[in-house]
Amino acid sequence: MKCKKCDQKAVINLQHHNISFCKEHFLEWMRVQTERVIQKFHMFTKEERLLVAVSGGKDSLSLWDILWQLGYQADGLYLDLGINDFNNYSSDSAEFTRRFAEERGLQLTSMDIKAQYGESIPEMAARTKRGHTKPCSQCGLVKRYLLNKLALDGRYDAIVTAHNLDDEAAFLFANVTHWSLDYLGRQYPLLPATTGFARKAKPFCQIYERESAAYAILSGINYIYTECPYSDGSKQLRNKRYLNMMEDEQPGFKTQFYLGYLRALKAGAFPQQQESAAKLEEKRCAKCGQPTQSDGLCTFCRLVNK
Ligand code: FES
Ligand code: ZN
Ligand code: ZN
Fold this sequence. Notes:
Elements: E1 12-14, E2 19-21, H1 23-40, E3 49-53, H2 58-69, E4 73-80, H3 89-104, E5 108-112, H4 113-117, H5 121-128, H6 136-153, E6 158-160, H7 165-177, H8 181-184, E7 190-191, E8 199-201, H9 209-218, H10 235-249, H11 253-266, H12 277-282, H13 299-305
Parallel strand pairs: 3-4, 3-6, 4-5, 6-8
Antiparallel strand pairs: 1-2, 7-8
Helix pairs in contact: 1-9, 2-9, 5-6, 7-10, 7-11
One zinc ion binds near residues 3, 6, 8, 21 and 24.
């Protein structure tokens, strides 16, 4: 197996593209692909300030590295969720992230949820006792809220997350099987800013998980290998497995599935519900001022306020 570009021994074969690369040309290919997606969806420019959500995992550190190498002004945000019960997931991932930023001289903001709000994510979830043992929904809510808040407070032009093609295809699969039209109308990789909400972009939306892992390993990025202990047995992981089976039989399946969705979205197949600015101004959280659909407090303030 030889590199398509230089004829040297290849270290990776991308079956769905039917190409192989040596280390150097694979890393270059990843940067080119990411830049292409940024341009294709008009995500952001080099003059804008970006806030990258980093977890210490392969996807977010690879993305941050690529954005930095491409010359984007990308700062990192790490949220310490306080998930240390089964392994040291949060403490270890905080350390990987800190070292990554330090080695490159990048700006990293870290927030310890427990220090800030008095409870870790598992503690918040246990208190709210919604009949679920896992804290994933509370965790998602807190992460979305704080990422948005810190981006707005820091006057960033866009929030950047490292959702890869496997993540997007698995969400899509779940949303299609449940016919969640509401979600299907919102899964575009670029969501423009609206009242109270920062712009959100996903530059890895066409990058396979395997590729972002290979990028991290081949470029010597130290990242946390363990997953969040609560992700075990999740629907998202199960859907990823199903899609991997399809991909094994039909290389390129995930790409086709995702790009087909984007075409359908563009053709108006799903309602793209963008709340109008006036509507968002109507109701504001009494505590934090965020637009909210409920009276009084927003869901985040209700969760941390109890
Ligand atoms: Fe949030 Fe696992 S519960 S990362
Ligand atoms: Zn090569
Ligand atoms: Zn609020």
